[in-house]
Design brief:
Blueprint (H helix, E strand, L loop, with lengths): L1 H15 L7 H8 L10 E5 L8 H4 L6 H4 L9 E2 L12 H21 L4 E6 L13 H14 L2 E5 L25 E4 L7 E4 L19 H16 L2 H22 L5 E6 L2 E5 L3 H13 L5 E3 L3 E4 L7 H15 L1
Parallel strand pairs: 1-2, 1-3, 3-4, 4-5
Antiparallel strand pairs: 5-6, 7-8, 8-10, 9-10
């Protein structure tokens, strides 16, 4: 995440210099943390977003106050995330209106900082924020808007990459008019990094570098994992299992309306809501005591993050355990 944001800033600075090399004054000013114009660069992020706890990325993280409390931060714009309601068919108009308001807020944030917004960053599903979703049409509109305004469109796939949504990259499902400018990844991919358009790769050596840069062992592990995913058709398994899991969660919402609501998911990246945090937390403990390990996110959400080998029989067993807790 840190390096992706750095690459976006470097591109914007290079563009503002007209492609010229930095001056001696630029080099001297950066050593004093007083770069004219550069220190005003912005990254737009969404309410509820989580992009990491390191110093730069933390300014784009908006999920929990405890992550940011007492930590100096950049003055970067934050805009509302649509957080679509479920079942989608019953909330179609409400969801369209929420997405339209969010897009207008993005436009306003870019307009308020002309030639200062280097990037807009968004998760395909807001994991830490409570498994919050938006439609493919919303992300398509974001892609068009950022392309028109010259803002890097950064898709944070640290949580969603690696097949949990039934495809290797969650943004594949959006049918974008053109690819994102940058995609970050980690977790299931065994190592952390980003891939990008060639124009976002700094031309000077060592501009993006760290102690942990390059990990051949993790790369070799990932190669084997990808071979097994293809050999065992694990993406197909995840899509089928996810359909069964979400359908089962929707059924539990209908049968226990005082306990569960808002079943949603893509692949096995699934979630459901409880009335409030205390009941959700009590359910997490009860589920764990019955042998089902699931997590909480947001204010009242229970989320599923199973491995790619999680199959139909596992989904059925998990749903039975969840129903026993609902009862």
């Amino acid at each position: 995440m840190e390096n992706a944001l750095k690459a976006a800033f470097i591109r914007l600075a290079r563009r503002r210099r007209g492609g010229a090399q930095p001056s001696d004054g630029d080099l001297a000013a950066c050593m004093l943390n007083r770069q004219p114009g550069v220190n005003a660069f912005k990254v737009i992020s969404f309410e509820g977003g989580f992009h990491g706890r390191s110093m730069g990325a933390l300014s784009a993280t908006r999920s929990k106050p405890i992550h940011k409390l007492d930590i100096p931060a950049f003055d970067w714009p934050v805009v509302p995330f649509p957080a679509n309601q479920f079942p989608e068919a019953e909330h179609a108009e409400q969801n369209r209106a929420a997405e339209a308001r969010s897009l207008e807020a993005v436009k306003a944030a870019i307009d308020a900082h002309p030639d200062e917004v280097a990037a807009l960053i968004v998760e395909p599903i807001q994991g830490e924020g409570g498994d919050r979703h938006a439609s493919p049409a919303f992300f398509q509109a974001l892609r068009r808007l950022t392309a028109e305004r010259g803002v890097a469109f950064v898709v944070d796939e640290v949580q969603t990459c690696g097949g949990g949504t039934g495809v290797l990259w969650a943004h594949e499902a959006w049918d974008l008019p053109e690819p994102p400018d940058m995609v970050t990844f980690s977790k299931k991919m065994q190592l952390g990094g980003f891939y990008c358009r060639e124009e976002l790769a700094p031309v000077e050596a060592l501009r993006l570098f760290s102690t942990w840069l390059g990990d051949p062992l993790r790369g070799a592990q990932l190669e084997v994992i990808l071979e097994v995913i293809e050999r065992d058709r694990l993406l197909e398994n995840t899509r089928a299992t996810g359909e069964r899991l979400v359908a089962g969660l929707e059924d539990l919402c209908r049968r226990y309306p005082g306990v569960l609501s808002g079943a949603r998911g893509i692949g096995t990246f699934a979630a459901v809501d409880f009335p409030h945090a205390a009941r959700r937390d009590a359910a997490l403990t009860a589920l764990r005591n019955r042998g089902l390990e699931v997590g909480g996110s947001g204010d009242r959400t229970l989320r599923f993050r199973p491995a790619l080998v999680f199959a139909l029989r596992h989904a059925a067993e998990a749903l039975d355990v969840l129903e026993s807790v609902c009862k």
